[in-house]
Amino acid sequence: MNQQPTRTPAQCAQEQLEAYNARDIGKFAAVYADDIELIDLASGEVFCRGRHALVERYQAMFERCTDLRCTLVNRFVCSPFVVDHEHVSGQRDNEIIHAVATYECHDGLIRRAWFIRGSRAQ
Prior knowledge:
Elements: H1 9-22, H2 25-29, E1 32-40, E2 46-49, H3 51-64, E3 69-78, E4 81-89, E5 95-106, E6 109-121
């Protein structure tokens, strides 16, 4: 039997970041668990539940935002969690979204992710 190696939490975060920047919804979604939950950390609101909803949400954004780009500022790994400090451009004119994303990874997939977002003018 040939088993495919499991991604580390850092690999999960990096692969989804690269797929996000390539706007490749297939590769992006493949890093997330079927029952993924995306959560706004400030409010505690689950704003996306399940891989199907994730695909719908991000595919629309990838199509709409042709200049979308996430730049990793810093990454901290405390397995099974990965905390990324990010700057996201291309969603709104002349605005960089300053974000912190925390990914909880198990069995080579992102199971839950929490986001804090702010913005600053470019």
